[in-house]
């Protein structure tokens, strides 16, 4: 990977304005993140990422006053990165004095520039020191009226637009209710109302991945109408989960034994979401259990 192929984001701003939440948002979107890196190491870090042979294509670094005397060299380090040909963006997080004071009181932490004095004195001193960085920032987010989740969502929208919906990983799991529901399922759909292939002797030993079973499960108007409505529901709610900052969703599809109906439906759901650019894994938790025991439902 060349230097231009590396997406590099430098996060800075006022203490208490939400740098940690911003970094976590980018981390959830696949960025390699480093917190509190001294600015003097920025160029070396970027070079290592560029030489990683594609293992690190997106990186985010938090640089702030915790770096002490090193922090004063951040502007120089950013200039050096640009001179070396790296493509970078600076994200500056800001908030009102009142908001920062309230957050410090809630966290009971001391301000790094006023460890023994008033929090307001430290905030004003920090604001003055960061003015040059604020001016050169590519993006500024005022977090005064944002919750942590809203900030994470806004950061994701800023830097992950081109990557679309695939940034939320979706696991679709078929299962049998007789073996219990998946403990980590966010959404569960019970498909035991559909006609059961178990009662067709030729289909009994097969799973929902077999064409004959799929034809049986979807071979009636009720199943087709259900599938259309359920896929429309997923198409509506999944983008809203993303906007709320969710990065992994587990969809459970259950029938009695987890071998026929749930498997066929899970496969159809997985194919539908793949077509819409979600990152999908489909697992059939119980499909083999019944075959080994010689019983299905």
From TrEMBL:
InterPro entries: P-loop_NTPase, RapZ-like, RapZ-like_N, RapZ_C. ATP binds at residues 13-20. The keyword Transmembrane does not apply. Residues 168-286 form the RapZ C-terminal domain. Keywords: ATP-binding, GTP-binding, Nucleotide-binding. Residues 6-160 form the RapZ-like N-terminal domain. GTP binds at residues 64-67. SUPFAM superfamilies: P-loop containing nucleoside triphosphate hydrolases. HAMAP family: RapZ_like. This is RNase adapter RapZ. It comes from Desulfosporosinus nitroreducens.
């Amino acid at each position: 990977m060349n230097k231009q192929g590396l997406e590099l984001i430098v996060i800075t701003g006022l203490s208490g304005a939400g740098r940690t939440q911003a970094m976590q948002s980018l981390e959830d979107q696949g960025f390699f993140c480093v917190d509190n890196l001294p600015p003097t190491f920025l160029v070396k870090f970027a070079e290592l990422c560029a030489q990683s042979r594609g293992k690190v294509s997106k990186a985010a670094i938090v640089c702030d006053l915790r770096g002490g005397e090193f922090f004063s060299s951040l502007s120089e380090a950013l200039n050096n990165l640009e001179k070396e040909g790296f493509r970078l963006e600076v994200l500056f997080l800001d908030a009102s004095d009142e908001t920062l004071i309230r957050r410090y009181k809630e966290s009971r932490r001391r301000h790094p520039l006023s460890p023994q004095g008033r929090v307001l004195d430290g905030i004003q001193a920090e604001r003055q020191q960061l003015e040059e960085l604020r001016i050169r920032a590519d993006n500024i987010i005022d977090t005064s009226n944002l919750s942590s989740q809203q900030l994470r969502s806004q950061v994701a929208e800023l830097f992950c637009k081109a990557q679309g919906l695939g940034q939320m990983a979706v696991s679709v799991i078929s299962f049998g209710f007789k073996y219990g529901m998946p403990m980590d399922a966010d959404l569960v759909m019970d498909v035991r109302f559909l006609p059961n292939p178990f009662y067709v002797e030729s289909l009994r030993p097969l799973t929902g991945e077999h064409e004959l079973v799929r034809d049986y499960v979807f071979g009636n108007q009720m199943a087709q109408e259900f599938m259309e409505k359920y896929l429309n529901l997923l198409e509506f709610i999944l983008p809203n989960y993303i906007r709320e900052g969710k990065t992994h969703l587990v969809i459970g599809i259950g029938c009695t034994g987890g071998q026929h109906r749930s498997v066929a439906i899970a496969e159809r759901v997985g194919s539908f979401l793949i077509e819409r650019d979600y990152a999908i894994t489909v697992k059939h938790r119980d499909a083999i259990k019944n075959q080994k025991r010689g019983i299905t439902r």
